[in-house]
Specification:
This protein is 40% helix and 20% strand. It is of the alpha/beta class. Strands 3-2-4-1-5-6-7 form a seven-stranded parallel sheet, with helices on both faces. The longest helix is centred in the N-terminal third of the chain and has 22 residues. The chain is globular and about 45 Å long.
């Protein structure tokens, strides 16, 4: 019978990732730059929220953006047109960003005198929740068309988020979405999560989200 060794990689991979993430967080804190990691499934309105946030705050906050995608630069173009410094990150098929990828992006961005960096992560509700990117805050976006049952199906994402944005609330009349049930399910997984129902299209609820951003930049 052949002998073999079993090597457990998961712990080592995450240990190294977490070390780099903490180093990145500390360095950004020293230069008074806040990193937000925004996660969601594809089509949740993530880029629209980012663009409208830039438009609303660019006169008072210096914002830079890292757009992560498997391919294409469509989102980066939209962000640049909104008035923010942006770089496009292509993952080559990977479904998430880890802390080393994030750090490489930050170095390429050269974030001197930047108040806030937004990392628009890959559209994915599983892999992205597992990796600490070095962000100060994790923001998850859930859109009305996706359904109110997502906290039951993707609990790790909701546990990892500091903020839940429930987007596209202007579409509520067209979908069987129970807002109270969704909030209750999210809170049961993460009692401290802050929840902002918004419509980036109509502007409803955006003021509360924008004030949260302002408060966290000035801490």
């Amino acid at each position: 019978m052949n002998e073999f060794r079993t090597i457990k990689l998961k712990k080592g991979i995450f240990e190294r990732n977490n070390i780099v993430a903490q180093e990145t967080r500390e360095e950004l804190t020293k230069q008074n730059t806040v990193l937000l990691n925004i996660m969601s499934s594809p089509g949740s309105g993530k880029t629209t929220v980012v663009v409208e946030t830039i438009k609303a705050l660019k006169a008072e906050i210096c914002i830079a953006v890292m757009e992560a995608d498997v391919d294409s630069d469509v989102d980066a173009t939209a962000v640049a047109q909104a008035g923010a410094k942006v770089i496009q990150l292509h993952t080559g098929g990977m479904c998430h960003l880890d802390s080393q990828m994030t750090r490489q992006g930050i170095e390429s961005l050269d974030p001197q005198n930047v108040d806030m960096i937004i990392l628009e992560n890959i559209g994915n509700l599983i892999c992205t929740a597992a990796y600490d990117t070095g962000a100060h805050k994790n923001v998850m976006i859930l859109s009305i068309p996706e359904g109110d049952d997502k906290p039951l199906k993707y609990p790790a994402m909701f546990r990892s988020a500091d903020v839940l944005i429930i987007s596209k609330i202007d579409a509520l009349p067209m979908f069987d979405f129970n807002m109270e049930a969704c909030i209750s399910r999210a809170k049961s997984l993460n009692p401290t999560i802050e929840i902002f129902p918004i419509s980036a299209k109509t502007g409803e609820g955006m003021d509360v989200w924008l004030n949260w951003v302002r408060q966290n930049i000035r801490q």
